[in-house]
Amino acid sequence: MKKERTHSVRAGGRTVEIQRPDKVLFPDDGITKADLAEYYRAIAPHMLPQLRGRPLMLERHPDGIGGPRFMQKNTPENYPDWVRRAEVGKEGGTVIHTVCDNTATLMHLVDQACITFHRWQSRAGRLERPDRLVFDLDPSGDTAEDFETVRRAARQLGELLDDLRLDPVLMTTGSRGLHVIVPLSGDTDFDGTRSFAQEVAETLARRDPDHLTTAVRKQARGGRLYLDVQRNGYAQTAVTPYSVRARAGAPVAVPISRDQLDDPRTGPRRWTVANALEQARTDPWGDARG
After folding, report:
1. Residue of 3, 16, 148, 220 with fewest CB within 10 Å of its CB?
2. Domain 6-120: CATH superfamily, name plus number
3. Is the pLDDT of residue 2 over 70?
């Protein structure tokens, strides 16, 4: 029997084997598992500060983005012992989430065909104390005109948060909209931060009711942009900066500056595995802890 080819990646003093490196994960683009590992290894210095200490939900596509999707919370027993875990309470028991603190873990998760990393808003050791808020600006469609609505809402939300003496940062999602992320001190629990986020969203929707809504039910939105704050609850997750999305073209969720929000070239999928590292090197968030 022919031995299956592997690809060895050296990461932080460890050697991680990428099984089936020639497996095509993005068929329209010819992007393989080895290509994905190369991207994540290169982006790791920029991405790991956004991952460290946070329980993760892992979006895995073992047969590529055209095959079944697995949303993994619990860490399998066969993961290496050097992969950090976080035991999280849930109703009736616990979940052992994976935590990605280093490049070797990142490479192991890529070997498991993890394409997208979804992170908690809090860290292990302070699970009840979120240190960020996420406003997901979710348009009703996926056209250039729809993204103009996203752009306008991001400006409006930014101005409101500025008035509240907060320091929001922006991120394209690699899907359709933007995330507006607010770093927090971690002094308030999830109920408090979610209530605050809901109040902010409702204030914004009242100011522009023709274009913005907080209606959870799609049928009630009437084509308006949804100001989604649901990711701010306990055990809820949001896509991690620099994560690849499981879409044709391999778009990436990328931090942007406020100036880039006004750049007509900016869109939800402007950056991909081909150019996200170039964007990361511009340090678009500066000293912010998004």
Report:
1. 3
2. DNA primase, PRIM domain (3.90.920.10)
3. no
Phi, psi of 166 (to 5 degrees): -105, 170
What's the CA gap between 212 and 202, in Å, rounded?
9
Q: How far apart are CA 73 and CA 248, in angstroms?
A: 25
* pLDDT tens digits along 224-264: 999 999 999 999 999 999 999 999 999 999 999 999 999 99
> Residue 172, Cβ neighbours under 10 Å: how many?
29
**What is the share, in percent, of the chain residues with pLDDT greater than 90?**
92
Is domain 130-228 annotated with CATH 3.90.780.10? Answer: no
Question: Which residue ranges make up each domain of the chain?
Answer: 6-120, 130-228
Q: How do 6-11 and 14-19 pair as beta strands? A: antiparallel
Amino acid at position 73, single letter: K
- 78-112 pLDDT, tens digit per residue, is 999 999 999 998 888 899 999 999 999 999 999 99
Residue 4 in this model has a pLDDT that exceeds 80? no
Provide the token pair at 281: 């090197």
Q: Among 37, 104, 52, 7, which Cα is nearest to 289's?
A: 52
| Helix (H/G/I), strand (E/B), else coil: 260 | helix
Per-residue pLDDT at 211 exceeds 50: yes
Cβ(120)–Cβ(54) below 8 Å: yes
Measured in residues, the chain has a length of 290
Contacts of 259 (CB under 8 A, 6+ apart): none
Residue 192 phi, psi dihedral angles, 5° rounding? -70, -45
